[in-house]
Write a structure and sequence with these properties.
The chain is elongated. The chain is mostly helical. The longest helix is centred in the middle third of the chain and has 19 residues. The protein contains twelve helices and no strands.
Length: 211
Amino acid sequence: MTKKEKVNYVIKELLKIYPQPKCTLNYDKPYELLIATILAAQSTDECVNKITAELFKKYPTLESFAEADLSELENDIKPVGFYKNKAKSIKETAKILVEKYNGTLPTTIEELVKLKGVGRKTANVIMANIYGIPSIIVDTHCMRLSNRLGLVNSKDATKIEFELRDIVEPQLYTIFSNLMVYHGRAVCKAIKPKCEVCTIKDVCKYFKARK
């Protein structure tokens, strides 16, 4: 089985369990997803969603984030970890979006990654969910599962993104990425993966090595 065949099999099987895999961060406005994704680095979407439920009420506009008191914003997002850097990134990025982009998000990855606190993962989240452009989103789940399945052999997120681009059908980029998140949370956990109930274990390099 080639890697492309394996990917197609994995997607087909996982769609039976997770038929409509979507972004698991809560947001109503495009910039809210950007902020939520910045917060999600080294944290969980569940934790971020709890924080943003109140955060987006307290700061209802992009301008309010740009004008926020930095120490107060730090305190508001403290549970996510790395809150000082994230607060600074959010405030600076909000200011740039207001002043340079008239409050709208850049439409290319190249522009998005120039924003403070925005890497390729965050940029791809925006491209996929705001602009509807299929994108490979390499988060911790995608990285872990892609390695365990034997699709890649790397810990470099950018390298993994481009390798997956070559073996996943372009129109399925976002679906594949979301399926990795769903399955990574439910079954293929970082510690004590539930291999015994995994429906794709027959094509999994990690499972075969454990036998």
